[in-house]
Amino acid sequence: MVKICCIGAGYVGGPTMAVIAFKCPNIEVVVVDISVPRIDAWNSDHLPIYEPGLDDVVKKCRGKNLFFSTDVEKHVCEADIVFVSVNTPTKTQGLGAGKAADLTYWESAARMIADVSKSDKIVVEKSTVPVKTAEAIEKILMHNSKGINFQILSNPEFLAEGTAIEDLFKPDRVLIGGRETPEGAKAVEALKNVYAHWVPVEQIICTNLWSAELSKLAANAFLAQRISSVNAMSALCEATGADVTQVSYAVGKDTRIGPKFLNASVGFGGSCFQKDILNLVYICECNGLPEVANYWKQVIKINDYQKNRFVNRVVSSMFNTVSGKKIAVLGFAFKKDTGDTRETPAIDVCKGLLGDKAKIDIYDPQVSKDQIQRDLTMKKFDWDHPMHLQPSSPTSMNKVNVVLDAYEAAKDAHGICILTEWDEFKALDYKKIYGNMQKPAFLFDGRNVIDADKMREIGFIVYAIGKPL
Ligand code: NAD
Ligand code: UGA
Questions:
Q1: Pairwise CA distance, residues 326 & 306, whole Å
Q2: Ligand 2: distance of its center to the CA of 65 in Å?
Q3: Are residue 262 and residue 191 in the same domain, yes or no?
Q4: Cα 251 to averaged position of ligand 1 atoms, centre (Å)
Q5: Same domain for 442 and 309
């Protein structure tokens, strides 16, 4: 029986390994992590992450060929294939701070693998890493290996949160990069055989190591660039009377462009787009390519602009001040169907409104009060450095309430901001909500989920991204 161990039981390690175990009953999969609460949660009825379909998959395999453990060293030692899926945040200090990837967690995992291994292993980069990381990892492993043969593969993950199980069951492609040597090719083949249990072989792309590492950063940069492009258009739509939904539709009908990922929004969030583009920018700068670096930097700048533009629109519409006014924030997660708030645009919008002295009541169906409090009091980039977190300051939270439903959030509010596209926000009783609000009642739709004309008929003053006012 092939034994797989995955270091890092997070949003990627957990679901990815659960699906491998589910699709490959002949493989034993152990997911390990240094975080005891995380592993306890994976072993309980309340998994540490919310992801549609995940509970089912985990329940079917856990205790059979899928295990979660904190005994990192034992399971790494016993494995034939070790996936490393630890966090690779943006550096907060020192050389490259604010841009470069912090590989501390990766390096400590690699050193541990070298220390505890007693047999040959394939080590798989699952985390998103800077191009050429495999070379550094090879150095760490080889210099400490006591004659053990390690083959490093790059196998970046393309799943999106909220659809992780669907994406893993039917990936557009699986990418495997390896050394172009007989041993490298053998390792690539071994990993290919794992995925071939359920992924058609023509969808498994094999490349050299550096192409695989760079393709991951490139894919995220291209995806984020589409959103910044449509968001830039949304500003022009508002200025000219064009409707961004109609423009996206017309543009996306061109088969060379395609219809997906063209929804204008309050800005993209999530743990990776910004981090990976900053990483790409840093790599370009280090390779003497400032023009390329500046090109990609612009994707982030437009995203920041879009979030600021939304806050400015709220404040300017409400007679240039929100001081002392109650604003209901509907949705805090960075997208629907996840409880993840990493880099969610809601953080910047809430901070912007608090900066203008608003009182905000927040409702999200999947995000806890504790999480929201942590997010609103944390410094930029600290969220992905869990080991260094400082306790949050309670004073900055006295203007924030986290409530249990949308109606409570909107009661007596002057305005509503929809910041996540949860389906339930489409089905709310907006007449009832309007009746319980201060007048004039403002509605700012940061996700274009509601029918603006119907809301205007009810009496709301409506602002929707990229739509005529
Ligand atoms: P995460 O923070 O949810 O999980 C990482 C886990 O690694 C944490 O539980 C942490 O405790 C653990 N860890 C850190 N150092 C460790 C060590 N030395 N030994 C054992 N465990 C250790 O992160 P994530 O969202 O799963 O992302 C992981 C990687 O995958 C990142 O590089 C990210 O860019 C990439 N990625 C993420 C997504 C996504 O949707 N979240 C998608 C594709 C790729
Ligand atoms: C993204 C990529 O889609 C995955 O392929 C990749 O594996 C992952 O990053 C990663 O490397 O972490 P994710 O961040 O989970 O996945 O979610 P997306 O669906 O890409 O959404 C990202 C952000 O863009 C969200 O805030 C979403 O609301 C926003 N978005 C998305 C838009 O504003 N408009 C769109 O048309 C699409």
A1: 23
A2: 31
A3: no
A4: 36
A5: yes
Q: Report the separation in Å between the CA atom of 160 and the middle of ligand 2, taken as the mean of its atom positions.
A: 6
- Is omega for the bond preceding 391 within 30 degrees of 0, making it cis? no
Determine the atom of ligand 2 nearest the C-alpha atom of 447. Answer: 33
Which stretches in the chain have pLDDT values below 50? Answer: 389, 391-395
Any ligand 2 atom below 6 A from CB of 159: yes
List b or e across 405-414, with b for residues whose CB sees 16 or more CB atoms inside 10 angstroms. ebeebbbebb
CA distance 191 to 459: 59
The answer as to whether 63 is a domain residue is yes
Pocket test for ligand 1, best of 7, 16, 33, 167 (most atoms within 8 A of CB): 33
Task: Name the CA radius of gyration of the chain, rounded.
Answer: 23
Structural domain that includes position 67: 3-199
Q: Is 175 helix (H, G, I), strand (E, B) or coil?
A: strand
Q: Which ligand is nearest to the CA of 338?
A: 2
Which ligand has its closest atom nearest to the C-alpha of 133?
1
* 3-class state of residue 347 by DSSP: helix
What ipTM does this complex have? 0.98
CA–centroid distance, residue 384 to ligand 1 (Å): 9
| Residue at 287 is within a domain | yes
Amino acid identity of 298?
Q
Q: Is the CB of 331 under 6 A from ligand 2?
A: no
The whole-model pTM stands at 0.96
Question: For residue 21, which of 68, 90, 91 has the smallest C-alpha distance?
Answer: 68
Confirm whether 272 is a catalytic residue. yes
pLDDT digit string (tens) for 370-396? 999 999 998 766 666 655 545 444 445
Which ligand 2 atom sits closest to the C-alpha of 265?
Answer: 33
Q: Is the CB of 198 under 6 A from ligand 2?
A: no
Please tell me whether 87 is known to bind a ligand. Answer: yes
**φ and ψ of 261, to 5 deg:** 60, 35
CB of residue 270 inside a 6 A radius of ligand 2: yes
What's the number of domains the chain is made of? 2
Digit-coded pLDDT (tens) for 135-187 = 999 999 988 768 899 999 999 999 999 999 999 999 999 999 999 999 999 99
In DSSP notation, 85-150 reads -----B--SSTTTTTSB--HHHHHHHHHHHHH--S-EEEEE-S---TTHHHHHHHHHHHT-TT--E
Report the CATH number at residue 444.
Answer: 3.40.50.720
> In this structure, what DSSP letter does residue 423 have?
G
